[in-house]
Amino acid sequence: MTKDRLGLLRECDHFVMEGLRRHNLYDSIWQCPTAMVPMSIDGKGTELVVVRPVHTKRAMTARPASFPSLLIEELRREVLVLDGVSGLCLDLTSKPPGTIEWE
User: Fold this and answer.
1) Which of 3, 7, 17, 62 could be bridged to 95 by S-S, CB 3.0 to 4.6 A?
2) pTM over 0.85
């Protein structure tokens, strides 16, 4: 991890958290990590940004939280224009089989 990658990740996470606040989802979604995978899509950028919103009560199981289409569009406009970003994904994996966090 480099300082530049961390800065990009922080900027992407800021857009996601602010989007959750704008759409009154921040307090209802239990956790929503933003992660980056070093991947170029169609030769554009070097980082794939992944967002994973989940609902859970005790963290033993979790189900994906849905985003309104307007929030998805806003995130696409904000994140995909950032230098270095190749794509944006919404991870809808439940727990189990997945984990809540990205490792």
Assistant:
1) 62
2) yes
